[in-house]
Design a protein that fits this description.
single chain; mainly alpha; 49% helix
């Protein structure tokens, strides 16, 4: 196992992307498998032309990687989500 697989990447965007990709597998696969997955994802994100272009696009759009998921308005104003009239169950 290489040291690259054991360390966190120094680029916060790459680290966040790798962490999100691995999150569903934490606790489900062995640490060795996670390390191998991390190494493969990191290699792909730092060498593949399409992946590099996508990472740069994310870097340019500060809102592309939200701190949390969910629904919200584009202008950032919080609003409650209510069922529309006539919707099933409403």
């Amino acid at each position: 196992m290489s040291t690259a697989a054991q360390r966190q990447h120094t680029d916060p965007l790459l680290e966040a992307t790798i962490a999100r990709a691995l999150a569903p597998y934490i606790g489900r696969v062995s640490p060795q498998v996670l390390a191998t997955m991390r190494e493969g994802i990191e290699e792909m994100l730092t060498t593949d032309e399409l992946a590099l272009a996508m990472i740069e696009q994310l870097r340019d759009d500060q809102h592309a990687v939200p701190d949390m998921s969910g629904e919200g308005r584009i202008d950032g104003v919080e609003a409650s989500i209510e069922p529309k009239r006539g919707a099933r169950g409403a």
